[in-house]
Amino acid sequence: MTCTIIVGGQWGDEGKGKIVSYLCEKDNPSIIARGGVGPNAGHTVEVGDKKYGIRMVPTGFPNVNAKLAIGAGVLTDPEVLEKELEMLKDFNVAQRIILDSNSGVIELKHREMDKSNVHLSKEIGSTGTGCGPANVDRAMRTLKQAKDVESLQKYLGDVSKEVNTAIENNENVLIEGTQGALLSLFHGSYPYVTSKDTNASSFAADVGVGPTKIDEVIVVFKSYPTRVGEGPFPSEMTEEEAETLGVIEYGTVTGRRRRVGHFDYELAKKVCDLNGATQIALTCLDKYDTECYGMKKYEDLSDKSKEFIKIMEQKLGVKVTLISTGPELSQTIDIRNK
After folding, report:
1. Where are the domains of the chain?
2. 43 is catalytic
3. Catalytic site includes residue 13
4. Is 119 annotated as contributing to ligand binding?
5. Which CATH architecture has domain 3-334?
6. Global pTM?
């Protein structure tokens, strides 16, 4: 049994949602806990022929046997949370969710401040969800907590206690982080970053787990990095080149077109070091090489893809154990135990 943290290895949008969904189905964790900033990160989860865009609920919600937790370090927008609980009622999410009593609460004033601040909205490219201003209030000790909001009372609990109890009982625990490591307030391309750290150690702290209890850190890299909004992007390609490769994407929260680049080994090595990565999950390999679409066995991959993976492992010093070759969960190559 293991406690595993999932981390985005670039600027977000790496396909963490699919990797989390796959692990939830394959490893059947007893609790799926969310760390990260708050509702400023969107994830798209596909269940059958339906797509769900979520910002608060852990993306592992399709596993109806697992408890779903939102850690104390995560900001909560009550309106967004309630909408998602209603949207996901067929999955019984409202009965399984545990919102930490100490989670900070985003209010209307935070969203308005976020959108009206020219530096944040225009220059930095904030999502306008109120996370930055709310984290300012949290640092000033003036922010409301979930336990102060009447409508949230029925969801409250002690996430740290729940997670640590599961670990002590030798159950599988999955901690899913949001955004990407390169958007970290401390280690990213400041000032074009989010309002807190977005690496494994912070995600563990968000849900109240000590570092010695973490068994695996899986960093998720997309075969071609993407970025929404402003900020440095060393390996960025032109929109025309991206279109030629068939890579046209839009952000889940903002709807803005994503900037696209070539895989950056130097930045990827930095991310692996920052997170103490024990495994790499590689997504969108089918976009890097269309011949690999839907492949389910490593030996069936093209020589081009195998060489890409080999170079990645050599330069980053971490084994690639999960490979996504399409949007469906079945289109995943799992070589964790090989």
Report:
1. 3-334
2. yes
3. yes
4. no
5. 3-Layer(aba) Sandwich (3.40)
6. 0.93
